């Protein structure tokens, strides 16, 4: 869900001219979140996911190491 759609001044669906400013605002918000320690950022997005808020799926993966030291 894009929270910017709730405010008439940033609803880029109703007002196409708001698109660039809405995008910039979203990027700034995400940059603020990601400026925090990684554990806090991950917990924020995990909490949003548990609440059903968001429109992205992010996976954090760790490669599995096999016996010879090679990643699978």
List the helices and strands and how they pair.
Layout: H1 19-34, H2 38-50
Radius of gyration: 17 Å
Fraction in helix:
40-55%
Q: Can you write the helix and strand succession as a string?
A: HH
Mean pLDDT: 85
Largest beta-sheet characterization: none
Number of domains: 1
Unreliable segments of 5+ consecutive residues: none
Q: Helical element count?
A: 2
Structural class: mainly alpha
Description of the structure:
The mean pLDDT is 85. This protein has one domain (1-72). The protein is built from 2 helices and no strands. It has helices at residues 19-34, 38-50. The chain is an all-alpha fold and 72 residues long.
Which tags fit this structure?
72 residues; mainly alpha; 0% strand
Summarize this, please?
This protein is mainly alpha-helical and 72 residues long. Helix content is 40%, strand content 0%. It has one domain (1-72).
């Amino acid at each position: 869900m894009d929270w910017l759609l709730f405010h008439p001044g940033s609803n880029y669906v109703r007002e196409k001219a708001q698109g660039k400013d809405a995008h910039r605002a979203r990027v700034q918000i995400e940059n603020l979140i990601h400026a925090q320690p990684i554990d806090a950022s991950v917990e924020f997005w995990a909490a949003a996911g548990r609440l059903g808020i968001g429109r992205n799926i992010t996976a954090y993966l760790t490669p599995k190491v096999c016996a010879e030291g090679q990643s699978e």
